[in-house]
Design brief:
single chain, 466 residues, binds iron/sulfur cluster, TIM Barrel, 2 domains, 43% helix
């Protein structure tokens, strides 16, 4: 017997197909390549397993993209999802990226009201609305995480604005944005006590939200509580941070709270409940693509032509309970390389998984800062470029260019000077770590719960002469 939730999902799907004017067995042809993928997927109902390559009018395969079937609705979602967080400023360039992505089989686009300083949903909406609504799935979020707890009216304004900016009358994937920071009290203040979650559940029932989930960072008690209450909420998906480093080493990265959980735990718990995962940070904010020469060598010995980024994506995509892995692609060459990686995705072998686990163990011993360069902490009112400083420092760690920890080492002064010179070239004076006033404003905005001012002091210390 079907649960209410399953019935509701089926009903939504049926209504949706009716709205498109297609039945469940319709053969489709001569549509844009992107729309063929999405509509054909919906016309196949709940069929599972491999998705046939898309066909153009000549019968030639137009895309080899790997798809995953969404439990319940049967939607075929491209395993590579487009993270819209960091888009180019020019709308024309956004349009080009989106057009190329759709034409090559990507059909999942993830944005949020707070991305791009509040402009991201609109840019996403402008680009996507030039295509048939049936050719893409759009994900956005309730980004009420900053400031004091919002009354429901204010949250509803953000919710309604998402529809306007995205130019849609339903949202495919809607998320409670970044839950976990601040623990259970924060979750309850943001979503439970003000009735906001009840409102979103009702919106899902009405079909304006097709799938409801949450993105999680931080205190694992929140993650567990939301899943313990799954009988009540029926989460359709959950977005987690997962990559081969965070699989077993998420707790090592100098965070303020002790509540962080390894991705292995998060993924395992979701898999047991049959809730599919959307993956963020598959390359850990670029940290797994800018690896040390030593790691690069180990990887290229195993697969000569593969970039470190491709290894990272293949590892994530090899997990069967992953619905889609988000990549923030703001340059055409990255988009093209990633599409190639996923068209089709070649899963990692056991030997390759073992190699990546060994590399992760080694990386975990390095004193990097667990910054994903998401820029949620920005702007800093004193002008510090927080992600820029941390990215510079992390790259220096990876490349073995840090002058510390040994000030008495014979090459300390030489290394310090070289580090300082490179730092001055990379970060403008007004944006350097020395400008940090320890005001603490950024602390509450960082989903990784990094002790940002403490790390800024560490960076300053790095350049001190003695
Ligand atoms: S603590 Fe430092 S980096 Fe953070 S907002 Fe304040 S001045 Fe900027
Ligand atoms: S410090 Fe935190 S919020 Fe800022 S960019 Fe890094 S991970 Fe994101």
């Amino acid at each position: 017997m079907k649960t209410n939730h399953e019935e509701r999902q089926e009903m939504n799907r049926r209504q949706f197909l009716e709205r498109l004017g297609i039945g469940s067995g319709v053969a489709l042809s001569l549509l844009t390549i992107g729309s063929v993928g999405a509509i054909a997927s919906r016309s196949r109902g709940k069929a599972s397993g491999a998705f046939s390559p898309l066909q153009d009018e000549t019968g030639k395969a137009a895309s080899q993209m790997t798809y995953r079937t969404q439990n319940g609705s049967g939607e075929k979602i491209s395993l590579l999802g487009f993270g819209m967080m960091r888009l180019p400023k020019e709308q024309e360039q956004v349009n080009e990226l989106v057009d190329y992505a759709l034409a090559h089989g990507i059909n999942y686009f993830d944005t949020a009201p707070i991305y791009g300083g509040g402009t991201n949903e609109e840019a996403t909406g402008k680009a996507l609305s030039r295509h048939p609504r049936s050719s893409y799935y759009v994900a956005t979020k309730m980004s009420n995480q900053n400031g004091s707890f919002w009354p429901i009216e204010k949250a509803k304004e953000m919710y309604e604005a998402s529809f306007r900016k995205l130019q849609v009358d339903y949202i495919d994937y809607y998320l409670l944005h970044s839950v976990g920071g601040g623990g259970l009290d924060n979750l309850k203040g943001r979503f439970i006590d003000n009735g906001l979650l009840d409102f979103l559940l009702a919106e899902r029932k009405a079909g304006r939200i097709r799938h409801l989930g949450f993105s999680y960072h931080g205190d694992v008690k929140v993650f567990d509580w939301l899943l313990d209450n799954n009988d009540k909420y029926h989460w359709d998906f959950v977005q987690i941070q997962m990559n081969y480093l965070d699989w077993q080493h998420a707790q090592r990265r100098g965070r303020r709270s002790r509540g962080d959980a390894n991705a292995e735990y998060l993924y395992g718990r979701l898999e047991k409940l049959g809730i599919q995962c959307v993956i963020m940070e598959p390359l850990r904010g670029g940290g797994l693509s800018n690896v040390s020469d030593d790691v690069r060598l180990q990887l290229s010995r195993a697969r000569k032509d593969d970039t470190p980024a491709r290894w990272g994506f293949r590892w994530v995509g090899s997990h069967p309970n992953v619905l889609t892995a988000l990549s923030g692609m703001n340059r055409m060459e990255h988009l093209k390389e990633n599409i190639e990686t996923f068209s089709p995705l070649e899963p990692c072998t056991d030997v390759e998984n073992a190699l990546l686990a060994r590399i992760a163990d080694k990386m975990a011993g390095l004193p990097t800062i667990g910054c994903t360069t998401c820029a949620y902490c920005m702007p800093c009112k004193y002008g510090v470029d927080i992600p820029g400083n941390f990215a510079f420092y992390n790259q220096a760690v990876t490349d073995g260019r840090l002058p510390l920890p040994d000030r008495s080492a014979p090459d300390f002064e030489e290394k310090r000077k070289a580090y300082l010179e490179a730092y001055r070239a990379a970060i403008p004076t007004a944006a350097r770590a020395t400008k940090c006033q320890d005001c603490g404003e950024c602390l509450k905005k960082c989903p990784q719960e990094l002790p940002i001012p403490t790390h800024m002091s560490r960076l300053v210390e790095m350049t001190r002469k003695s």
